[in-house]
């Protein structure tokens, strides 16, 4: 969120969210209750998956899935350098090594033609990220993963409600993970959701989110019949985490899911307004959706044309902000973040497509309540900044 007149993002919450949250507060049941169960059911159905596990964030969901799959020190996980940093951080959190693959310049997802060259005997998974909610290539990642008998983990934190090739986001991999930060299609304040068709994996994730407690009705790792393995609240079957989602957060999520089609329709309308308004603007590359695919629009990110660089882009962003238009540089490349450069020795030129794209992206204000007047004002201001930049170029 920002203090700009037109903020970069804004959650769409209202009376239903207030009503359900108040109901939870009055119930006295603030964790592991019926709201969580309903929210899990609604998200699983939307993703077309059999199981859903609510967690405290998208990051914790990805971490739990990696841990549940037994990925750890000495292992490698293939992923993208063009993403929010959490998708690579979770690989480090389990002690494994992220192996980056450059991206496709159109979809902004990993280039599937480059993945197999990155697979080694240490590769234990492919973690595919749907950049800005674009599901392109997920089916190809799944086929590559199957060929090499390694799991595909789908980071669909930005893609709830998106479709590609007749399949829904969350359904391509061994597991998918959604995120519900306030700038996402729906929000729970903070929160995430693991989805899968694998009942055993779902049970392990349920245990991991709850301090490693055994899940009622699930088979536990040890066959020891001692009292510590009877499923009591203070019996712990494995090393786990506190990744639970509160009933308050789940209540917001239930309200959001009941309104999901309405919220997404509004976001699609805003994206159409931007598309119509910016289509003829020179020096801009607009986001594309493949024929037959559908997106629920996490953000609206434009790209400056080739020939522009990060200095020009940053000046344009400063100009937009100076005119009270919220915007951001989505995303800086992960491998060039200070921590990753220090740990792995990455430098400029390692992943040239991702680096070129990253230097020219601008996320424009985007949320369900934007109207035509605000979109027009953003477009006018962006055009002004582009003209200034054009006039200053030799």
Structural commentary:
With 394 residues, the protein is α/β, with parallel strands linked by helices. It is 38% helix and 12% strand. The chain folds into 2 domains: 15-258, Type I PLP-dependent aspartate aminotransferase-like (Major domain) (Aspartate Aminotransferase, domain 2, 3-Layer(aba) Sandwich), CATH 3.40.640; 260-392, Aspartate Aminotransferase, domain 1. The protein is built from 13 helices and 12 strands. The strands form 3 sheets. A 7-stranded mixed beta sheet has the order 1-9-8-5-4-2-3, sandwiched between helices. The chain has a 3-stranded antiparallel beta sheet with strand order 10-11-12, with helices on one face. A hairpin with a 2-residue loop joins strand 6 (163-164) and strand 7. Helix 3 (58-68) packs parallel to helix 4. The radius of gyration is 22 Å and the shape is globular.
Going by CATH, the homologous superfamily of the largest domain would be: Type I PLP-dependent aspartate aminotransferase-like (Major domain)
CATH fold-level topology of the largest domain = Aspartate Aminotransferase, domain 2
Number of helices: 13
Which descriptor suits the 3D outline? globular
Structure at a glance:
By secondary structure, the protein is an alpha/beta fold. It has helices at residues 15-27, 34-47, 58-68, 86-93, 115-118, 138-147, 199-209, 247-258, 260-278, 310-322, 338-344, 352-358, 372-392, and strands spanning 51-55, 76-79, 97-100, 123-129, 152-155, 163-164, 167-168, 175-179, 192-196, 284-285, 300-304, 361-364.
Task: Describe this protein with a few key phrases.
394 residues; alpha/beta; Aspartate Aminotransferase, domain 2; Aspartate Aminotransferase, domain 1; 2 domains; seven-stranded mixed sheet; three-stranded antiparallel sheet; 13 helices; 12 strands; globular
């Amino acid at each position: 969120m920002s203090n700009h007149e037109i903020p970069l993002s804004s959650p769409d919450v209202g009376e239903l969210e207030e009503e359900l949250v108040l109901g939870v507060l009055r119930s006295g049941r603030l964790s592991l209750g019926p709201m969580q169960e309903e929210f899990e059911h609604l998200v699983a159905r939307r993703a077309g998956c059999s199981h859903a596990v609510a967690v405290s964030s998208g990051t914790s969901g990805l971490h739990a899935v990696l841990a549940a799959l037994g990925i750890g020190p000495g292992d490698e996980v293939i992923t993208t350098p063009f993403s929010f940093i959490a998708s690579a951080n979770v690989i480090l959190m389990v002690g494994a090594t992220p192996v980056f693959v450059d991206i496709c310049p159109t979809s902004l997802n990993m280039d599937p033609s480059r993945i197999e060259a990155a697979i080694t005997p240490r590769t234990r998974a492919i973690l595919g990220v749907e950049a800005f909610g674009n599901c392109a290539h997920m089916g190809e990642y799944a086929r590559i993963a199957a060929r090499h008998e390694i799991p595909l983990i789908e980071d669909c934190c930005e893609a709830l409600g998106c479709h590609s090739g007749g399949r829904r986001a969350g359904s391509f991999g061994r597991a998918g993970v959604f995120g519900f930060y306030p700038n996402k299609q729906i929000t729970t304040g903070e929160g995430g959701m693991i989805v899968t068709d694998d009942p055993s994996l779902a049970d392990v994730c349920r245990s991991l989110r709850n301090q490693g407690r055994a899940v009622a009705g699930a088979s536990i790792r040890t066959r020891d019949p001692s009292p510590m393995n009877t499923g009591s609240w203070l019996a712990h079957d494995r090393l786990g985490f506190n990744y639970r989602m509160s009933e308050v957060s789940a209540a917001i999520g239930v309200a959001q899911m009941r309104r999901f089609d309405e919220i997404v329709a509004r976001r699609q309308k805003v994206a159409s307004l931007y598309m119509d308004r910016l289509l003829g603007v020179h020096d801009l590359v607009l986001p594309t959706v493949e024929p037959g695919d559908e997106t629920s629009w996490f953000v609206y990110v434009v790209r400056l044309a080739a020939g522009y660089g990060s200095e020009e882009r940053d000046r344009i962003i400063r100009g937009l902000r100076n005119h009270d238009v919220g915007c951001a540089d989505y995303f800086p490349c992960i491998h060039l973040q200070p921590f990753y450069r220090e740990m792995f020795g990455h430098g400029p030129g390692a992943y040239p497509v991702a680096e070129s794209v990253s230097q020219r992206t601008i996320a424009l204000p985007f949320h369900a309540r934007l109207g035509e007047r605000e979109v027009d004002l953003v477009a006018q201001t962006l055009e002004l900044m582009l003209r200034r930049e054009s006039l200053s170029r030799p």
